[in-house]
Protein backbone atom coordinates (compact mmCIF):
# COMPACT_ATOMS: atom_id res chain seq x y z
CA UNK A 1 0.00 0.00 0.00
CA UNK A 2 2.80 2.38 0.86
CA UNK A 3 5.00 1.66 -2.18
CA UNK A 4 4.85 1.58 -5.97
CA UNK A 5 1.90 3.45 -7.55
CA UNK A 6 0.87 4.94 -4.19
CA UNK A 7 4.21 6.69 -3.76
CA UNK A 8 4.10 7.94 -7.36
CA UNK A 9 0.59 9.32 -6.85
CA UNK A 10 1.75 11.12 -3.70
CA UNK A 11 4.59 12.74 -5.66
CA UNK A 12 2.21 13.87 -8.39
CA UNK A 13 -0.17 15.22 -5.74
CA UNK A 14 2.63 17.18 -4.09
CA UNK A 15 3.69 18.71 -7.41
CA UNK A 16 0.09 19.55 -8.24
CA UNK A 17 -0.50 21.21 -4.86
CA UNK A 18 2.70 23.21 -5.26
CA UNK A 19 1.65 24.36 -8.72
CA UNK A 20 -1.85 25.30 -7.56
CA UNK A 21 -0.46 27.20 -4.58
CA UNK A 22 1.98 29.14 -6.72
CA UNK A 23 -0.68 29.97 -9.26
CA UNK A 24 -2.90 31.30 -6.47
CA UNK A 25 -0.01 33.44 -5.24
CA UNK A 26 0.55 34.73 -8.76
CA UNK A 27 -3.12 35.67 -9.18
CA UNK A 28 -2.92 37.55 -5.90
CA UNK A 29 -0.03 39.62 -7.26
CA UNK A 30 2.63 38.23 -4.94
CA UNK A 31 6.21 39.45 -5.03
CA UNK A 32 8.77 36.90 -3.79
CA UNK A 33 11.65 37.93 -1.59
CA UNK A 34 14.61 37.48 -3.91
CA UNK A 35 17.78 39.25 -4.89
CA UNK A 36 17.71 40.66 -8.41
CA UNK A 37 20.63 39.81 -10.67
CA UNK A 38 22.19 42.67 -12.59
CA UNK A 39 25.17 43.33 -14.80
CA UNK A 40 26.79 41.48 -17.70
CA UNK A 41 25.59 38.06 -16.45
CA UNK A 42 22.09 38.88 -17.68
CA UNK A 43 22.75 38.19 -21.36
CA UNK A 44 24.69 34.96 -20.98
CA UNK A 45 23.52 33.13 -17.85
CA UNK A 46 19.79 33.85 -17.80
CA UNK A 47 16.90 33.44 -20.22
CA UNK A 48 13.68 35.46 -20.09
CA UNK A 49 10.23 33.95 -20.35
CA UNK A 50 9.49 35.14 -23.90
CA UNK A 51 12.86 33.95 -25.13
CA UNK A 52 12.39 30.61 -23.34
CA UNK A 53 8.96 30.10 -24.87
CA UNK A 54 10.45 30.83 -28.29
CA UNK A 55 13.31 28.37 -27.76
CA UNK A 56 10.91 25.63 -26.67
CA UNK A 57 8.24 26.38 -29.30
CA UNK A 58 5.65 26.93 -26.58
CA UNK A 59 3.00 29.64 -26.18
CA UNK A 60 3.54 31.93 -23.18
CA UNK A 61 0.23 32.12 -21.32
CA UNK A 62 1.13 33.89 -18.08
CA UNK A 63 4.24 35.50 -16.68
CA UNK A 64 5.00 37.64 -13.66
CA UNK A 65 7.67 37.76 -10.96
CA UNK A 66 6.26 34.70 -9.19
CA UNK A 67 5.36 32.24 -11.91
CA UNK A 68 5.13 31.70 -15.64
CA UNK A 69 3.15 29.14 -17.60
CA UNK A 70 3.52 28.08 -21.22
CA UNK A 71 2.18 25.20 -23.29
CA UNK A 72 1.40 23.74 -26.67
CA UNK A 73 -1.16 21.13 -27.70
CA UNK A 74 0.79 18.37 -25.92
CA UNK A 75 3.15 19.88 -23.32
CA UNK A 76 2.70 22.11 -20.28
CA UNK A 77 5.49 23.98 -18.50
CA UNK A 78 5.32 25.89 -15.23
CA UNK A 79 8.29 28.07 -14.23
CA UNK A 80 8.48 28.63 -10.47
CA UNK A 81 9.99 31.91 -9.34
CA UNK A 82 12.34 32.43 -6.39
CA UNK A 83 12.71 31.53 -3.61
CA UNK A 84 11.27 28.12 -4.63
CA UNK A 85 12.84 27.91 -8.08
CA UNK A 86 12.82 25.24 -10.78
CA UNK A 87 10.23 24.15 -13.30
CA UNK A 88 7.48 21.55 -13.71
CA UNK A 89 7.43 20.08 -17.22
CA UNK A 90 4.56 17.69 -17.94
CA UNK A 91 4.21 16.92 -14.24
CA UNK A 92 7.93 16.36 -13.61
CA UNK A 93 10.11 18.76 -11.67
CA UNK A 94 13.42 20.03 -13.10
CA UNK A 95 16.04 22.37 -11.69
CA UNK A 96 16.69 23.72 -8.21
CA UNK A 97 16.01 26.83 -6.16
CA UNK A 98 18.94 28.65 -7.77
CA UNK A 99 17.73 28.08 -11.32
CA UNK A 100 15.29 31.01 -11.35
CA UNK A 101 15.95 34.64 -10.46
CA UNK A 102 14.64 38.16 -10.90
CA UNK A 103 16.86 39.88 -13.46
CA UNK A 104 16.12 43.57 -13.90
CA UNK A 105 12.74 42.88 -12.29
CA UNK A 106 11.87 40.08 -14.74
CA UNK A 107 11.52 36.37 -13.99
CA UNK A 108 14.26 34.38 -15.72
CA UNK A 109 15.68 30.86 -15.72
CA UNK A 110 19.32 29.82 -15.79
CA UNK A 111 20.84 28.85 -19.13
CA UNK A 112 21.41 25.37 -17.69
CA UNK A 113 17.72 24.89 -16.84
CA UNK A 114 16.71 26.23 -20.25
CA UNK A 115 19.00 23.68 -21.93
CA UNK A 116 17.63 20.87 -19.75
CA UNK A 117 14.04 21.75 -20.65
CA UNK A 118 14.96 21.98 -24.32
CA UNK A 119 16.59 18.56 -24.26
CA UNK A 120 13.60 16.93 -22.57
CA UNK A 121 11.11 18.56 -24.95
CA UNK A 122 13.11 18.16 -28.15
CA UNK A 123 15.81 15.45 -27.89
CA UNK A 124 18.52 15.83 -30.53
CA UNK A 125 18.04 13.77 -33.64
CA UNK A 126 20.38 10.82 -34.01
CA UNK A 127 21.90 10.21 -37.42
CA UNK A 128 21.19 6.79 -38.87
CA UNK A 129 24.36 4.72 -39.12
CA UNK A 130 25.31 3.14 -42.47
CA UNK A 131 24.74 -0.61 -42.65
CA UNK A 132 27.60 -1.57 -44.97
CA UNK A 133 31.05 -2.24 -43.55
CA UNK A 134 34.19 -0.21 -44.22
CA UNK A 135 36.91 -1.51 -46.50
CA UNK A 136 39.87 -1.24 -44.15
CA UNK A 137 43.34 -1.75 -45.62
CA UNK A 138 44.23 -3.63 -42.43
CA UNK A 139 41.45 -4.70 -40.11
CA UNK A 140 41.80 -2.56 -36.95
CA UNK A 141 41.77 -4.02 -33.45
CA UNK A 142 39.98 -2.27 -30.57
CA UNK A 143 39.85 -3.30 -26.91
CA UNK A 144 36.70 -2.19 -25.07
CA UNK A 145 36.90 -2.11 -21.29
CA UNK A 146 33.62 -2.18 -19.35
CA UNK A 147 34.47 -0.63 -15.99
CA UNK A 148 34.20 -2.45 -12.64
CA UNK A 149 32.30 -5.78 -12.46
CA UNK A 150 31.70 -8.66 -10.04
CA UNK A 151 32.47 -7.66 -6.46
CA UNK A 152 33.20 -4.08 -7.61
CA UNK A 153 29.84 -2.38 -8.39
CA UNK A 154 31.35 1.01 -9.23
CA UNK A 155 29.62 4.33 -8.51
CA UNK A 156 27.44 4.47 -5.41
CA UNK A 157 24.81 6.89 -4.07
CA UNK A 158 23.12 6.82 -7.45
CA UNK A 159 19.60 6.99 -8.86
CA UNK A 160 20.33 4.20 -11.36
CA UNK A 161 21.49 0.57 -11.43
CA UNK A 162 25.10 -0.12 -10.45
CA UNK A 163 27.73 1.43 -12.68
CA UNK A 164 29.11 -2.01 -13.61
CA UNK A 165 25.83 -2.97 -15.31
CA UNK A 166 25.46 0.27 -17.28
CA UNK A 167 29.11 0.18 -18.36
CA UNK A 168 28.87 -3.41 -19.60
CA UNK A 169 25.59 -2.85 -21.43
CA UNK A 170 26.96 0.23 -23.22
CA UNK A 171 30.28 -1.46 -24.04
CA UNK A 172 28.43 -4.39 -25.61
CA UNK A 173 26.39 -1.97 -27.70
CA UNK A 174 29.59 -0.29 -28.91
CA UNK A 175 31.05 -3.72 -29.69
CA UNK A 176 28.06 -4.68 -31.83
CA UNK A 177 28.28 -1.43 -33.79
CA UNK A 178 32.02 -1.80 -34.42
CA UNK A 179 31.60 -5.39 -35.60
CA UNK A 180 29.24 -4.07 -38.28
CA UNK A 181 32.13 -1.90 -39.51
CA UNK A 182 34.51 -4.86 -39.81
CA UNK A 183 36.51 -3.91 -36.70
CA UNK A 184 38.03 -6.66 -34.55
CA UNK A 185 36.85 -6.10 -30.97
CA UNK A 186 38.10 -7.66 -27.73
CA UNK A 187 36.31 -7.13 -24.40
CA UNK A 188 38.19 -7.09 -21.09
CA UNK A 189 34.98 -8.54 -19.65
CA UNK A 190 31.76 -9.65 -21.32
CA UNK A 191 29.91 -10.65 -18.15
CA UNK A 192 29.52 -9.51 -14.56
CA UNK A 193 32.93 -10.55 -13.29
CA UNK A 194 35.76 -8.78 -11.52
CA UNK A 195 38.90 -7.95 -13.53
CA UNK A 196 41.78 -6.10 -11.88
CA UNK A 197 43.14 -2.92 -13.44
CA UNK A 198 46.51 -4.57 -14.09
CA UNK A 199 44.82 -7.49 -15.85
CA UNK A 200 42.87 -5.09 -18.05
CA UNK A 201 46.10 -3.38 -19.08
CA UNK A 202 47.87 -6.70 -19.74
CA UNK A 203 44.90 -7.92 -21.79
CA UNK A 204 44.95 -4.86 -24.06
CA UNK A 205 48.73 -4.88 -24.52
CA UNK A 206 48.76 -8.59 -25.35
CA UNK A 207 46.21 -8.03 -28.17
CA UNK A 208 48.41 -5.29 -29.68
CA UNK A 209 45.29 -3.24 -30.16
CA UNK A 210 45.10 -0.05 -32.19
CA UNK A 211 42.90 1.58 -29.56
CA UNK A 212 41.74 1.08 -25.98
CA UNK A 213 38.48 2.63 -24.74
CA UNK A 214 37.29 2.19 -21.16
CA UNK A 215 33.61 2.87 -20.38
CA UNK A 216 32.36 4.06 -16.99
CA UNK A 217 29.68 6.17 -15.31
CA UNK A 218 30.50 8.97 -12.88
CA UNK A 219 29.45 10.07 -9.38
CA UNK A 220 30.03 13.21 -7.32
CA UNK A 221 29.07 14.68 -3.92
CA UNK A 222 27.54 17.62 -5.81
CA UNK A 223 24.10 16.44 -7.02
CA UNK A 224 24.16 19.06 -9.79
CA UNK A 225 27.27 17.61 -11.46
CA UNK A 226 26.38 16.08 -14.82
CA UNK A 227 27.75 15.42 -18.28
CA UNK A 228 29.60 13.06 -20.62
CA UNK A 229 33.40 13.27 -20.10
CA UNK A 230 36.42 11.84 -21.90
CA UNK A 231 39.72 11.32 -20.06
CA UNK A 232 43.19 10.66 -21.45
CA UNK A 233 46.52 10.22 -19.64
CA UNK A 234 48.28 13.36 -18.44
CA UNK A 235 51.20 12.78 -20.82
CA UNK A 236 49.16 11.30 -23.65
CA UNK A 237 50.31 12.03 -27.19
CA UNK A 238 48.58 13.42 -30.26
CA UNK A 239 46.89 10.13 -31.16
CA UNK A 240 45.11 9.94 -27.79
CA UNK A 241 44.13 13.60 -28.03
CA UNK A 242 42.61 12.99 -31.46
CA UNK A 243 40.76 9.91 -30.17
CA UNK A 244 39.27 11.94 -27.32
CA UNK A 245 38.25 14.77 -29.62
CA UNK A 246 36.63 12.36 -32.06
CA UNK A 247 34.69 10.74 -29.20
CA UNK A 248 33.51 14.12 -27.93
CA UNK A 249 32.54 15.42 -31.38
CA UNK A 250 30.48 12.31 -32.15
CA UNK A 251 28.84 11.96 -28.74
CA UNK A 252 28.19 15.58 -27.75
CA UNK A 253 25.09 15.94 -30.00
CA UNK A 254 23.67 12.74 -28.50
CA UNK A 255 24.39 13.44 -24.80
CA UNK A 256 22.35 15.63 -22.50
CA UNK A 257 25.48 17.52 -21.42
CA UNK A 258 29.21 17.31 -22.16
CA UNK A 259 32.12 18.21 -19.88
CA UNK A 260 34.73 17.85 -22.60
CA UNK A 261 38.30 16.54 -22.46
CA UNK A 262 40.18 16.03 -19.19
CA UNK A 263 43.49 14.42 -18.22
CA UNK A 264 44.06 11.99 -15.35
CA UNK A 265 46.43 9.30 -14.12
CA UNK A 266 44.05 6.35 -14.32
CA UNK A 267 45.89 3.01 -14.43
CA UNK A 268 44.20 1.83 -17.63
CA UNK A 269 45.29 5.02 -19.39
CA UNK A 270 48.86 5.07 -18.13
CA UNK A 271 49.66 1.36 -18.53
CA UNK A 272 48.29 0.71 -22.03
CA UNK A 273 50.73 0.96 -24.95
CA UNK A 274 48.22 2.21 -27.52
CA UNK A 275 46.11 5.40 -27.72
CA UNK A 276 43.64 5.12 -24.86
CA UNK A 277 40.63 7.01 -23.55
CA UNK A 278 38.28 6.58 -20.63
CA UNK A 279 34.66 7.62 -21.15
CA UNK A 280 32.35 8.67 -18.32
CA UNK A 281 28.82 8.29 -19.67
CA UNK A 282 27.30 10.69 -17.16
CA UNK A 283 26.64 11.16 -13.44
CA UNK A 284 24.60 8.56 -11.61
CA UNK A 285 24.29 11.04 -8.73
CA UNK A 286 22.39 13.51 -10.95
CA UNK A 287 18.73 12.53 -10.78
CA UNK A 288 17.77 13.47 -14.36
CA UNK A 289 20.94 12.17 -16.00
CA UNK A 290 20.73 8.91 -14.06
CA UNK A 291 17.14 8.52 -15.25
CA UNK A 292 18.36 8.92 -18.84
CA UNK A 293 21.10 6.36 -18.37
CA UNK A 294 18.60 3.78 -17.15
CA UNK A 295 16.90 3.82 -20.57
CA UNK A 296 18.20 1.53 -23.31
CA UNK A 297 17.49 4.14 -26.00
CA UNK A 298 19.78 6.71 -24.34
CA UNK A 299 22.59 4.19 -23.82
CA UNK A 300 22.22 3.21 -27.48
CA UNK A 301 22.64 6.86 -28.52
CA UNK A 302 25.80 7.17 -26.43
CA UNK A 303 27.10 3.87 -27.83
CA UNK A 304 26.55 5.16 -31.36
CA UNK A 305 28.54 8.28 -30.53
CA UNK A 306 31.40 6.28 -29.01
CA UNK A 307 31.49 3.88 -31.98
CA UNK A 308 31.43 6.75 -34.46
CA UNK A 309 34.26 8.50 -32.62
CA UNK A 310 36.36 5.33 -32.66
CA UNK A 311 35.70 4.81 -36.38
CA UNK A 312 36.56 8.43 -37.13
CA UNK A 313 39.89 8.14 -35.38
CA UNK A 314 40.73 4.81 -37.02
CA UNK A 315 39.90 6.23 -40.45
CA UNK A 316 42.17 9.23 -39.85
CA UNK A 317 45.19 7.15 -38.78
CA UNK A 318 44.96 4.01 -40.92
Description:
The protein is an alpha/beta fold. The protein has two domains: 115 residues, no CATH class; 177 residues, Aminopeptidase, CATH 3.40.630.40. The protein contains ten helices and 15 strands. Strands 11-10-12-15-13-14 form a six-stranded mixed sheet. Strand 6 and strand 7 form a beta hairpin. Helix 5 crosses helix 10. The relative contact order is 0.11. The N terminus is likely disordered.
Task: List the domain count as a whole number.
Answer: 2
Amount of beta strand:
15-25%
Question: Which CATH architecture of the largest domain is right?
Answer: 3-Layer(aba) Sandwich
Tally of helical segments: 10
**Largest beta-sheet characterization:** 6 strands, mixed
Defining traits:
Aminopeptidase; 318 residues; six-stranded mixed β-sheet; disordered N terminus; 2 domains; elongated
Element layout with pairings:
Blueprint: H1 5-27, E1 36-37, H2 41-45, E2 46-48, H3 49-56, E3 59-63, E4 67-71, E5 76-80, E6 87-89, E7 92-94, E8 100-103, E9 106-110, H4 111-121, E10 141-146, H5 163-180, E11 184-187, H6 197-206, E12 211-218, E13 228-233, H7 238-251, E14 258-264, H8 267-270, E15 276-283, H9 287-293, H10 296-317
Parallel strand pairs: 1-8, 10-11, 10-12, 12-15, 13-14
Antiparallel strand pairs: 2-9, 3-4, 4-5, 5-6, 6-7, 8-9, 13-15
Amino acid sequence: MFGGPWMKSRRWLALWLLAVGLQAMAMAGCTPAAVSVRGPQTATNWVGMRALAGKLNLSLRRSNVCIASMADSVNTLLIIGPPHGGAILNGRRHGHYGDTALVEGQLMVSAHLAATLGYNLHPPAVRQRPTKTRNWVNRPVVVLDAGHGGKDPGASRSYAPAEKHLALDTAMRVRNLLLQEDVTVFMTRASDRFVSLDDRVKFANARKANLFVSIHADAAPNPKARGFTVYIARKAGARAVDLARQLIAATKPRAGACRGLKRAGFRVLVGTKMPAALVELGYLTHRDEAAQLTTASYRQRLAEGIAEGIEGHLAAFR
